[in-house]
Amino acid sequence: MTDQAHLRSYSLEERQFTAWLNTPKGAALIDQEQQQLVSLMPKAFGHYSVYLGLNAKLSSSLTTPIKTAITLTSATKLGADAVMDPHQLPLATETIDLLVLQHVLDMSHNPHQVLREVARVMAPGGRLIITGLNPFSFWGLWRHLRLKKGVPWRANFLSQRRLKDWLRLLTFDDFDIKPVYHYCPDKWLAKPLLKYLLNPCCTGYVLLAVKQEARVHLVKPKWRTQVMKPKFGLAGIARQPSCNTHPVESS
Q1: 74-108, pLDDT tens digit by residue?
Q2: List of domains in the chain
Q3: If you placed Cys at 56, which of 71, 128, 144, 182 could pair as Cys (CB 3.0 to 4.6 Å)?
Q4: Cβ neighbour number for residue 245 with a 10 Å cutoff
Q5: How far, in Å, CA of 58 to CA of 54, rounded?
Q6: How far apart are CA 90 and CA 10, in angstroms?
Q7: What is the pTM of this model?
């Protein structure tokens, strides 16, 4: 698929997902995601923060130590600061200290390229926040059985473990994952045992990862012939014995 085709496909998905946020299910899910974002934002620090995807404008207004916030979407009608293609971010390399992807990977047909761009623009020590849908939830089951159609059932539904493996290859670590439920009674979540059992089946998640500083390992050359240091009191170079075992007689 070409870059323009990726952008058209993503732009269509983003517009339809934005319309889905006005439904009761979409509003309930995003509201709980925002509550988890509120708990993660104070941990960020630096100079620049970027918000991509659904609800980016509202998320950029959350309290955070980073003062400069930029919102990016794929269409001007979504009310962002600038239009972008998530597969080719219009940002300089290693300049962003906080980057929030709200269901961008769910809507993209090439999430690997999106993450590669994210790893490129993020500064070492920067924080990446990703919201996604859990494939092992009831929503994921309905999607697998094709009991639901349209948005959000045609999203990618990337598992937390799979996403962490991808991020580790891009030098991300120090993960923190917050579960997101849908229409789950608060009295259920107040019980530790019941909450522990419900976590793997949560509707979605908010994942935090930290960009690690790339380390350069110097490879020392291995010489085939090593210089032998002379031992104390002995000659440094020993004479090779003659192949002829009998001495040569002089005539």
Answers
A1: 888 788 888 899 999 999 999 999 999 999 999 99
A2: 3-211 (3.40.50.150)
A3: 71
A4: 6
A5: 9
A6: 16
A7: 0.79
